[in-house]
# Entry
Amino acid sequence: MKRETINDMSGNKTNGLQINFCNGYTLSVGFGKAHYCENQDYGLYEEKTRQDVKPCPDMEVAVFNDTGFVRLGQYDDVAARVPVACLDILIQAARLEDWDQIRDLCDETRGAL
# Structure
């Protein structure tokens, strides 16, 4: 018997995506202009198309539901410069509501700011 855990995904061609889980939480990943990532300033003042977006090795991460954000740091609702290699772990942790694992992953990358 197949157990569904992801409701749907949405995204923007140049900035990121959101994964909406059946548990009511959303994992938001930003990797384009104005996000806390290597591409933060890339094309900030001009319109970019999908072809113009350069690959990004890191991303901004946030988790939230209808009542608000999951706190990812002492003062932060978003985590900056999280390696994209962590995405699969972040998806599983959000699905399982394992906020400690998400915070640990995000804390490991705070020195990169």
